[in-house]
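Following up on my earlier message about 1,3-dihydroxyacetonephosphate. Here are the inputs again, as you asked, copied directly from the submission form:
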Amino acid sequence: WPAQATLISEINALKRERDAVILAHNYMTPEIFHGVGDYVGDSLGLAKEAARSDARVIVQAGVHFMAETSKILSPDKMVLIPDLRAGCSLAASITGADVRLIKQRHPGLPVVTYVNTTADVKAETDICCTSANAVQVVEWAAREWGVDRVILIPDEFLARNVAAQTTVGIIAWKGRCEVHERFTADDIAEMRAAYPGAEILAHPECPEDVLAASDFAGSTAAMTDYVMARKPRQVVLITECSMASNIKGDVPDVNFIGPCNMCPHMKRITLENIRDCLLKLQFEVTVPEDMIEKGRLAVQRMIDLPP
Ligand code: 13P
Ligand code: SF4
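Thanks, got it. Here's what our run produced:
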């Protein structure tokens, strides 16, 4: 694709000129993921990289809550997102005011919040988690606070899936990922019938009967590691469609089959708007200072937990 190749070299030259780094989530399209991403990974990996990077500008090739997380961790850097409309159904499901009400109803319990939330929610949070470390974080919070229940919000399915793996009681919210909530146990049964040898990997934002019927549950990075390490002959990734497209090339003997769903928010990010973002230094993501202070404590606590 000559047009794509031109855009990719334009972006890579602009990155050097602007002293910018591109943090690309695993759900970016392959031309972004492979062509211009300086760091690619899951939500946890991107947050860690935002904290570590010494570039002057961070371009978040992902959704808005990820850019806010980068700003919270790197308040002195300019954080840009190529399209401000790149949102998330989970982040939109809850506000800081909702969290204050939940805390009033459950005084003394720690608030564990999925990183897929806005900065005002993070500012009300004791510690953040991602799908890669949710069980570890919940158990840490219960121990630190000396309680047997924690608040884990806003993803209803992640909360149920964590509850199935720990003795800590979970108080949940009703948020859902619009991409993963659509997978059903029937999808899995159909795949099992059509491809009896296939290994089925699902994201923890899926309903619990989907995970129960799958062979493995993990974050996007955990799914990648699983495929790279085990190289199954046939594999089904119950998640966003770009996941399979991005890792296919590295494991040519693995046959990727089965259903996937597209995240319309992630798909708002394109090579064109990344180029414009670097060219015009748009669209800057800012977070009020008081929210940065409070939110950073919650995100940093998560990052500081041992691996
Ligand atoms: P992870 O990459 O952390 O698994 O999260 C998936 C997701 O839905 C991010 O929007
Ligand atoms: Fe949000 Fe789901 Fe899209 Fe991730 S995949 S950004 S959780 S809507």
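One observation from looking it over: The chain has three domains: 2-87+267-286, 91-176, 185-262. Hope that helps, and feel free to reply on this thread.
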